[in-house]
Amino acid sequence: MNMLNKIFAGRTGYLIGFVTCFGLVGLALSIQTAYNLEPCPLCITQRMFFMGLGLLFLISAFVKPATIYSKFLTVLQVLAALGGAGWAIRHWYLQAHKGEIIADCGVGFDYMFENFPLKKMFTLIFKGTGDCATIDWTLFGLTLPQLGLIAFIGLGAYALYLAKLKNE
To answer: What is the model's pTM?
Structure first.
């Protein structure tokens, strides 16, 4: 275990977090392309959380350990992971209750971004749509939102682990 701590301590651990986050987005894009899938607004939002979390990991790789900035970045990383997990849970909920609720994602994310105020856009995204409730792809019986939730929880725990290593 001590060997692992040495590997993850310092910049290497944060760079691994950065590569993991953007690797997950790349994986989502490759699944989208391979299976000709159209991502819903909740999928896109989760990808944005992964990218934001990845950028926070990258920034942390270059911040001195045990500083207020380092601690602040850890808090932001955990909040980004929790935010992404929240969107994944909402997406999973829509999929699990497809027959019970009328779920409608509405217009595309690009259209919302260009034509609606930010508050209205987030309201529309969060409502979800039929596209959001559709299960297009699974891995080991898990849907993409479920896999995303696992990844967000893991990355949040990883951020806390790296912060602990940084302060030792």
So the answer is: 0.81
